[in-house]
Amino acid sequence: MVPPVQPRKLAKVPFVELADGRLQGVVSSGSDIGRVYVSSIAAGSHNYNCSTNNNRPCGGLYGSPCKHLRALVAEAVVQYGADRVCRYLRVEVPEGADPADCLGGVHEPAPAAVVFSRFLRHLAYLEVPDTTLPIPELHWFPATGTVG
Ligand SMILES: [Zn+2]
Questions:
Q1: Which domain of life is it from (predicted)?
Q2: Cα 59 to averaged position of ligand 1 atoms, centre (Å)
Q3: What average pLDDT does the chain have?
């Protein structure tokens, strides 16, 4: 199956961090440019959660990590390096294996709001691209710094 060509959108994983004993971050939806998922994996237990920024559970969690969690792990490896990510999560990864395949956790609900608000703060520090066009995927971004 060839995925349809999509208009420019948020990076697949615009935000990833190793914080609060978790690998967590924000993953944009593959199908809806206005929707993002907050995904997290706990260090040690590897229990994971994925929900929309409105705390709606991800439909892809069928007893195993969804594609957003896999994308989150892949991006963390790019940004932090596989060694650091695996050490942080305390996961044993055989040579050549995907860390996302080596997690032994179960689904465990976790609030998305904290991660999501950090993502918004992170966005605020990013340089806004030099464009006069509206950025539809940022429509939920507060227009005047009244947050906090
Ligand atoms: Zn998901």
A1: Bacteria
A2: 7
A3: 83
**Ligand 1 center–CA 92 separation, angstroms:** 23
Query: From ligand 1's centre to the CA of 121, what distance in Å?
Result: 22
Virtual torsion, Cα 76, 79, 85, 87, nearest 10 deg: -170
Q: Which of 25, 21, 20 is nearest to 36 (CA)?
A: 25
- pTM as predicted: 0.77
What span, in angstroms and rounded, lies between the C-alpha atoms of 69 and 46? 11
Two tokens, residue 139: 């429509």
Confidence at residue 111, expressed as pLDDT on a 0 to 100 scale: 81
- Report residues near ion ligand 1: CB below 5 Å: 37, 50, 58, 60, 66, 68
